[in-house]
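Weekly puzzle thread! Below is a chain. First person to post its structure in token form gets bragging rights.
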Amino acid sequence: MKRTMMRNSILAALCSFVISGTAFALPTDTDSVTVYRATYGGAILGGANLGGPFLLDIQNSNEEYLAFCLERDESVGIGTTYAVTSVSDEVLGGGDNTNNGDWLSDESQWLFYNYAFNRSSLSALTGVSDQNTLANLVQLALWYFEDEVVDSNDSLYSQLANFTGVISSNADASYNNYVTAVNLGSNNQSMIVGEPVPEPATMFLFGTGIAGLAGIARRKRS
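Winning reply:
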């Protein structure tokens, strides 16, 4: 009986450790999200060409995610709550070139990750330091890489070729496991979101924690 209770407590501790290690997991298709405008310095950030960045507030949780639109001709309502219909690298819905589904490009995933989590480095790489300009160029570039329509009438279009050229020269698949598409409702919009790569120290603690718990279990059995 004591051995069973100890085993159960060890398993409970292990489960607790694993859950805490994934507290910042991406949204799932059981979530609902409310869309807000992202701000910087108390003012709305970006927003040119009716694009992002946005914040997706996960209902019934304390989590929210930075996001950009992936489909040019679909929209979202600010302050509106949507059911998440799927979360994957496949963009679904009615964008200019996503009517039958479209897979996120390496460039889009790399660009979003570096904007969300390495923004100062992205600014240095592209030479764009103004936050509104950078946000608007990121939105245009995402549409460009996802084969959505961009043209000379778009704000900052004159800077887009150089910006996307720099991204294409540096992008790879490093962050594909950490960036995905959140598809909202029925043909409402698909949004790109991401989570940070776990820090080496966090992964080390996770590994040593599991090893320690396994050691306790072995000692109790012997």
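Puzzle host: Confirmed. Bonus trivia for everyone else. Residues 126 and 162 are 8 Å apart (CA to CA).
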